[in-house]
Amino acid sequence: MDAKICPDGSGVGREGPNCEFAKCPDVVGAIDIIPAVSNMVLSVGQTGKLGDLNITLNKIVQDSRCPTDVQCIWAGLVETEVTIGGFTKLETIKISSGKTPVLFDGYHISISSVTPSAKSGEKISTDEYKVTFHVVSSK
To answer: What is the SS3 assignment for 56?
Structure first.
């Protein structure tokens, strides 16, 4: 479930016996323009906006995160269905936590966190979810 967003907009997950974050890729060359970075916290049905980009969280497709009160060998993930729109296109896609950012019209979009945390024996209702989308613009 955990993902670390690297300076280049990519994401890395946890690995190894100590569950530490993997090393971010090295950034080669000078960066002339610092991209716009934003975090959008959305509930199901809400829309966030950054410049010409709109992200609507349609639904939680699955939540397989390891409960906080259980020791797991895999952290699990949350898969969402979102509708992303810009000036020229509109797409409905799935974005999962802990995965490589999705590229859409010059934006790198990933999930940086999901609340509430999973707990064994407790079901999270759809209206309780808050998904933080990490958006990096290269425009």
So the answer is: strand
